[in-house]
Specification:
Blueprint lengths: L25 H29 L3 H22 L3 H23 L5 H15 L4 H24 L12 H76 L5 H29 L7 E4 H11 L1 H7 L2 E4 L4 E4 L1 H17 L7 E9 L2 E8 L31 H11 L3 E6 L5 E8 L4
Parallel strand pairs: 2-4
Antiparallel strand pairs: 1-3, 4-5, 5-7, 6-7
Length: 431
């Protein structure tokens, strides 16, 4: 049984939603009503048989069977998808039956409890439709008032045919329906509690990650800023002294510090966007085209390092194009950056395995020792200094975030000096 949450109420024939709250959908309630109708029909039929065999009253048994028939019709309307007709049938037809029963046969069978039950069901079925709700509940209460006044002034049209089990029948049927409605809301309440607990756990984990992220980011930002400030100070001193011998070297160091800071800020922006679900739209995209876009973005680095990126045709996949391009770009860039070969080579392949798409990024780089395989996916974790390899330690953690958002996994197969292979496994149906 499902529950839904939408930003506003709208009528679609069988679904109603309300802003800011999680409610059972109409179809959930109508499923319960259908089941309650079957149980009520069985109870009414059994009671009719009891009337025939204990104290023969065929007329009264026929009336009871007609009530069972009303409940059977309610179930059939649900089975054939006539949801609007079912709602009207429960709210009005059942009220009319009780009204006519009162007028013809008297009012000694807890009809007040039945009208109260119908009013409750009507109120629940038409939540979010205030005008319709008021009209229907007023009609139900009006029928109850009319039948009560009629009996007081005129009395029943026929002889009072009350039987000793009428009270039991009325109360049992009312309990069945009220239990169904409030039982549904008990499930909703429990689901809300469970959702709140899960969100609280996610919030606490996010809070801890944010604190760690902030501390490390502030530390890493200080280093390039300090370098830039120091070398600018040296440049300023040399200019005042008229010493131009070291200007270009100091400018180059300051430039590297600025580049390091640029990469760091860019990495923080990218991983923050992924964490905050900035890219939420997903559609069917050609992975070949997204990989080409990533390679195009890296064309200067590829040319500088004389790198070769090899890949064949990749399948289409339901994903976010911005995130998937970032994933490809970071994995290809990683293979180029951490590579001492005269010609860095990165090979990308794809295959289908057991309902999953497996993407492999294989390079001929410096490799990573097994004990550091999980370490490299953490924020700001670097195995090399920024002087040796320019980087922020955010690229692979960003890749892991993106893969996890697509309900997949990323694995590293590598050994020192033997290159690396990053394997991305994605489900074919990520939604």
């Amino acid at each position: 049984m499902g529950f839904i949450q939408h930003p506003n109420y709208f009528e679609t024939g069988n679904d109603t939603h309300q802003q800011g709250r999680t409610l059972p959908s109409d179809i959930d309630l109508l499923v319960l009503i259908s089941k309650s109708a079957i149980i009520s029909a069985i109870v009414c039929f059994a009671y009719g048989c009891l009337e025939i065999f204990t104290e023969p009253s065929y007329f009264h048994a026929t009336v009871t069977y007609s009530l069972a028939a009303i409940f059977v019709v309610a179930h059939l309307l649900f089975r054939y998808g006539k949801f609007l007709a079912l709602k009207i049938h429960i709210c009005l037809v059942l009220s009319l039956w009780v009204t006519m029963d009162c007028i013809f046969m008297g009012g000694d069978f807890s009809q007040s409890a039945i009208f109260l039950c119908i009013s409750t069901v009507t109120y629940v079925l038409y939540q979010g439709q205030r005008t319709t709700q008021i009209i229907l509940v007023s009609t139900v209460l009006g029928l109850f008032t009319f039948s009560t006044v009629f009996l007081k002034i005129h009395g029943p049209l026929f002889e009072n045919m009350d039987q000793p089990f009428d009270e039991l029948l009325a109360v049992y049927v009312c309990v069945i329906w009220i239990y169904s409605i409030f039982g549904q809301y008990a499930q909703v309440k429990q689901k809300l509690i469970n959702d709140l607990e899960q969100k609280n756990q996610v919030l606490m984990a996010t809070k801890e990650e944010l604190e760690r992220f902030t501390n490390i980011a502030s530390h890493d930002l200080k280093s390039p800023l300090r370098n830039i400030s120091s070398f600018i100070g040296l440049i300023e001193r040399d200019i005042k002294r008229g010493n131009t011998e070291n200007l270009l070297g100091n400018l180059e160091f300051a430039k590297k510090g600025a580049q390091q800071m640029h990469h760091l800020v860019q990495g923080i922006l990218e991983i923050s966007s992924v964490n905050q679900n900035a890219f939420v739209k997903k559609d069917q995209y050609s992975l070949s085209q997204l990989l080409e876009d990533a390679v195009t973005n890296l064309r200067l680095e590829i040319a500088e390092k004389n790198a070769v990126v090899q890949y064949g045709a990749l399948p289409d996949y339901h994903c976010n194009d911005v995130e998937m391009t970032l994933l490809f770009q970071n994995l290809v860039q990683n293979g180029i950056k951490y590579n001492k070969s005269p010609q860095p080579a990165i090979s990308i392949t794809a295959e289908q395995i057991d309902g999953h798409l497996k993407l492999s990024f294989t390079d001929n780089g410096i490799g990573i020792e097994p004990q550091f395989h999980s370490y490299v996916f953490e924020h700001f974790k670097r195995l090399h200094s920024s002087q040796e390899y320019m980087g922020t330690g955010l690229g692979l953690s960003l890749c892991q975030k993106i893969v996890q958002k697509h309900k997949g996994e990323i694995q590293l197969i590598s050994a020192l000096g033997k290159g690396s292979q990053f394997v991305v496994v994605l489900p074919n149906n990520p939604e």
